[in-house]
Design brief:
mainly alpha, 89 residues, 4 helices
Length: 89
């Protein structure tokens, strides 16, 4: 649904990226809350693969703005996951 809204121009790149980041971190949080390990959870791996492919495509773009978007997404997700892990300790 989010991707469809993006394709139809209903949300901006910034809002799309923000929502992708939020959803990825929320998914990780739910996984940790259930006591599962992200590395061994096929559902989590499949869901995050989509985000990884999007970030990879942006990173490989010749457009510097796309490369910057990819960098920001990666950094925000990494920080969010680190915060979740720190809260679990």
């Amino acid at each position: 649904l989010l991707r469809l809204k993006k394709q139809q121009g209903q949300i901006s790149d910034a809002d799309y990226d923000k929502k992708i980041i939020e959803l990825t971190i929320e998914r990780y949080q739910r996984l940790k809350d259930s006591g599962k390990d992200a590395a061994n959870d096929p559902e989590y791996q499949a869901a995050t693969k989509q985000v990884s492919l999007m970030v990879k495509k942006l990173s490989e773009s010749q457009n510097p703005a796309d490369q910057e978007r990819a960098k920001k997404i990666k950094e925000a997700v990494a920080k969010g996951i680190k915060d979740v892990d720190a809260a679990k300790k």
